[in-house]
Hints:
The protein is mainly α and about 425 residues long. Helix content is about 70%, strand content about 0%. Among the domains are: about 10-80, no CATH class; about 235-305, Serine Threonine Protein Phosphatase 5, Tetratricopeptide repeat, CATH 1.25.40; about 310-405, Alpha Horseshoe (Serine Threonine Protein Phosphatase 5, Tetratricopeptide repeat), CATH 1.25.40.
Amino acid sequence: MPAPRLALNPAAVLHAALLRASSAGCRLPPRISFNSLLAAAASSADTRTRALALPALALAHASGRVSLDSYALCSALRSAPSAAGTLHALAAKSGWLGSVFVSCALAASYGGSGRCLDARSLFDESPARNGVFGNAVLAAYVGAAEWAPVLRFARRFSELRLQVDWYTMTAVARACGEVANADLGVQAHGHAVRRLGGVEVDVFLVSAFVDMYAKCGLISQAERVFRLAQQETGGRGDVVLWTAMLNAYARHGQCKEVIRQYDLMLASGVYPDELAMLAVLSACQHAGEVVKGLNYFESMHADYGLVPTPEHYGCVVNMLCRAGEVTKAWEIATKDGCDHAIGVSTWGALLSACQVRLNVEVGRMAAQKAIELDPTNVGIYIELSNLYARACLWDDIDQLREVMKERGLEKDVGCTWVELGS
């Protein structure tokens, strides 16, 4: 007679997974509650361990080993936001939907999945509401870039007696900037000062106001907010605040000021992050500051340990292409196998620059890189054909046309629209 099959113990499964995912020498206590294990699995950096949290909760609930509570539901929602609908139904069935903690977690999960309307419906139907719950709904609207609903919902905080905090006003400032409503933005700034006191203390809120004023065209006001925040921090500030000011200058085409501000940031002892580096590289690209741009790019990894992204490479390659340094652009784009981090648009820009400079060798290699990433991009073939035509390489053009025919690629036929009665 076969041995009876033992039922899985969900706590043991989670415990074993956490031990495997933990670093050598890191031990979990031998006796620990299921909710603690579930919370640890949900916040684990290991994706496979996080994926075990929801099945473990389902198994524990079905077997009756543990009773369902708000802690378990919140952990499961954090590990699997896409299962918000299922866990919403489970919370309603088990009577835990009345918990403001569960409702907040559900709203955050809906927001993370782009379901801002579901988050708002949950808020409207919930008997328990607070400012954190309202902020979760605001975050859902912000994540979906629904800026008008952000402003409408934020106006109801006073009516619903919800506490306005730093996050609330940060969302409002962002929305005012996105809709470019300077009058409303000034009112929001004043409201934040009255309700929260020292706005400059919160780096994310003051950065949002700097960004808002810049998007509304009030660069001088953005500078004023930035200087006040600098005074509060003794002139040092935070990289988030500095980056907001860099982007403000960049948005108004003040590339030289971006570079000057970046140098001031380094002199203040503030290390850049990827966004600050992208802002200054973009400024160097548009200002034609090739030497400075290359120095900044080299310092990115050497001095600050940052890994360049396709956007960083794109700025540097475009900067060199504008200066006619196509060979140097190719060398940087393929240095140490970095070409895998570069997108089609950057290879296309290098190909276009090669056409201007009549560099067939680099242009052909750039086109090959672009075609490897997007074999059906007709524009790359056309650019390469134009390069061959400028170099009078008619045989290569014929071969390229044959390749396009074999792959079923055709150039879109040009057309003209004529509007009668205009």
